[in-house]
Amino acid sequence: MSSQLNDSCLLIGFPDYREPAQRLARAAGIPYADALIHYFPDGETRLRLPEPLPGHIVLCQTLDHPNSRLVELVLAAATARDLGVKHITLVAPYLCYMRQDKAFHPGEAVSQRIVGTLLSQWIDALITVDSHLHRVHQLQDAVPVNPAINLTATPVMSAFLEKQTDNPFLVGPDEESEQWVAAIARDRDFDYCVARKERFGDQQVRVSLPKADYRNRHVVLVDDVASTGRTLEEATLGLANFKPASISVLVTHALFVGDAQERLRRAGVSHIWSTDAIPHSSNALHLDRLLAKALDGCRI
Ligand code: R5P
Questions:
Q1: pLDDT > 90: percent of the chain
Q2: Mutate to test the pocket of ligand 1, among 96, 223, 262 (most ligand atoms within 8 A of CB)
Q3: C-alpha angle with apex 131: 224 to 152, nearest 5 degrees?
Q4: Dihedrals φ, ψ of 4, to 5°?
Q5: 154-276 fold
Q6: Which of 136, 195, 243, 280 is the most buried (most CB within 10 A)?
Q7: DSSP 8-state assignment for residue 8
Q8: What is the pLDDT of residues 149-183, one digit of tens each?
């Protein structure tokens, strides 16, 4: 850790992401403080930052529940500026609104660009993990700040899988997942393949598996995000026909909305693992060291 960052920096966490933020502060050797949040009966937020603040702060908040957390983030960043902070680094392990990267129908908001521009008005640097960049390839094109660092959790995942599973067979449920599945497989020489997905609506997808010998293998489905879980559920139902030894799920971002986890269990998934990019009961992998190393590189 650069002494410059150490001596003059404070990491500020939010109550709903306190534990991962505190872990990151410890790993990075940066003092930690809470942003104090009070919810008024009508749903508005009162936010209070500790005083005095150093010239550089790190705001650590993940951006699931995006609409309320974006507002709280802007409240925090604007207040920090009022209190004299010169440089704000945002560590947002899950970056919201990245999937709507074009107007799929006339009149639709291109949320990725709009939210990225909003963030860039308040922060100076960004660190995130496995951001869903599809048509836009550089994080900086979506969130125009410098640096804008898009880390990948794949080294943490491959180390985890090596300990957890004997000779796993990795399956990516759609073409976009290939980047993550291939990287993990390359790291440890695991077998892998990638399925094809067609999406018909929020909850309707069809997953076509490639021909492969899944029988008696410990299959691990790997994806960046599990939202409704339909993608993983459809892939699991297809895989079950081939009688694998087990089917597990490993994702960076565990949104798992509604009854997604229960449906995956019913479909035949034995283990559901995720990183702590989003707090969830399936969290089995911590990203603190990965994030701390990137913070160390953000010398101001
Ligand atoms: C998009 O392609 C992502 O990589 C995920 O596959 C997708 O967001 C998963 O969504 P759901 O869990 O709702 O099927």
A1: 94
A2: 223
A3: 70
A4: -60, -45
A5: Rossmann fold (3.40.50)
A6: 195
A7: T
A8: 999 999 999 999 999 999 999 999 999 999 999 99
Q: Are strands 36-39 and 45-48 parallel, antiparallel or unpaired?
A: antiparallel
Q: What would the CATH number be for the domain defined by 3-152+286-296?
A: 3.40.50.2020
Q: What is the mean pLDDT of residues 20-26?
A: 98
Q: Is 286 in the pocket of ligand 1 (CB under 6 A)?
A: no
Pair 47, 73: CB distance under 8 Å = no
pLDDT at residue 4 above 90? no
Tell me if 174 CB under 6 Å of ligand 1.
Answer: yes
CA 117 → CA 77, 139, 224, 292, distances in Å? 14, 12, 23, 25
- Atom 3 in ligand 1: which residue has the minimum CA distance? 225
Query: The tokens of 38 are what?
Result: 């009070």
* Ligand 1 atom, smallest distance to 134 CA: 2
Q: Tell how far the Cα of 12 is from the centroid of ligand 1, in angstroms.
A: 30
Give yes or no for residue 261 CB within 6 A of ligand 1. Answer: no
The per-residue pLDDT of the chain, averaged, comes to: 96
pLDDT confidence of residue 299: 61
Spell out the domain ranges in the chain. 3-152+286-296, 154-276
Cα 132 to ligand 1 centre (Å): 10
pLDDT in tens, 196-225: 999 999 999 999 999 999 999 999 999 999
3-152+286-296 against 154-276: fold identical: yes
Residue 202 CA: which ligand 1 atom is closest?
13
18 alpha carbon – ligand 1 mean position (Å): 26
Separation of 260 CA from ligand 1 center, angstroms? 12
Q: Is 229 in the pocket of ligand 1 (CB under 6 A)?
A: yes
- Retrieve residue 298's tokens: 């953000």
Closest to 162 (Cα-Cα) out of 40, 250, 289: 250
Rounded CA separation 283/226 (Å): 13
